[in-house]
Automatic annotation (TrEMBL):
One of its GO terms (molecular function) is 3'-5' exonuclease activity. GO terms for biological process: nucleobase-containing compound metabolic process. This is Ribonuclease D. Signal peptide: none annotated. SUPFAM superfamilies: HRDC-like, Ribonuclease H-like. Residues 207-287 form the HRDC domain. It comes from Acinetobacter beijerinckii ANC 3835. InterPro entries: 3'-5'_exonuclease_dom (IPR002562), HRDC-like_sf (IPR010997), HRDC_dom (IPR002121), HRDC_dom_sf (IPR044876), RNase_D-like (IPR051086), RNaseH-like_sf (IPR012337), RNaseH_sf (IPR036397). It comes from the Bacteria. PANTHER family: RIBONUCLEASE D (PTHR47649:SF1). Transmembrane segments: none annotated. PROSITE patterns: HRDC.
Amino acid sequence: MFQFIQQQNELAVLLTQMEHCSTYALDTEFIKVDTLYPKLGVCQINCNGQIALLDGTSLNLEHFWHKLFAAQQNIFHACGEDIDLIYHYADQKPLKNVFDTQVAMSFLGHGLQVSYQNALKSCLNIDIEKDQTRSNWLARPLSQDQLSYAANDVLYLVKLADTLKTDLKAKGLYQYVLEDCQNLTKEIAMETPLAELYADIGNYRHNRRELMQLQQLSIWREQITKALNQPRSFILKNATMIDLVEKNPRNNFQLAQIKDMRPNVVREHGKTILDLLKFLPPEDEWPLRMARPVKSNSKEVAPKVDTLIENIFIQTGIPKEVLLRKKWLHAIYEHVVFHFDEQDLPDYLLGWRYEILTKPLIELLRQDIEYLATQMKVSN
């Protein structure tokens, strides 16, 4: 039913077989508990119905990763963490040839995060066990239950994908799904510039001094977590960083009172953290205040926005939560109010959504610019 490959010569045979297969169904099992980067336990592949489980602890998979980038299509379900792992091990990105069955199901009205287990039950009436999800995939030997679980994750994946593709093509949505999958893998490949990391932690309530402190702390945290290969939360949680800039501790005793501050971090990095809070560049180099989030459109424009989205849903059948995410709408608000360049909008909004959604939505919101600007008002 499946082959567990642990030797390099066995992998060489699989690599030859992959030459005769243009589409692969894939999954990974890994551990990411006390490290920043995932540790691969098993990589599963379904190639022309032949299932192989690759031992991530013993094999050199360099040539295997190259095959994935050269494939016609790679099929995953909920690919986010798998793609992140592949980027790390392959040292190559982005992977542009992905079909994600979870993304496909969202277009067909199953919600944004349907599980693989529920997807198989819903589309193929197949039941599988998911009792090994929290297994230790680095331990050897792996149990028969673990190996069977891993194999099941790709056993039915091609059939699920084929079923979904048929439905999507009948509705004229297949190319839209492929584009969203490509945007997803590109998004995973993008690294936030160091100087902008603070923007994911701070908010409009923070003054410029606090944002400058957050910027320095976030740069330092990113550098040290990568150097030590530790999760960011092992050094400083986001909530801890916010507490730091709001309470401004002056010594290690005060530092130890900060929310979720680990004693070992105080011992090993206390002076560095206090210096990052105290020694700041000139004020004209501090980040600008952040805009307030928009709570609503005006009573005149809000119904028009709702009607626009409802009409697109009626015309295309694409669920509203797939058409427009909250963070994309926020990006459009900023584009309209602050006159940002259209090319700076998320890629999702510049592809198939542009003519039917993005462009008419921008035109509508420009009628509401004064109301939006009042809500997003940036404090001094």
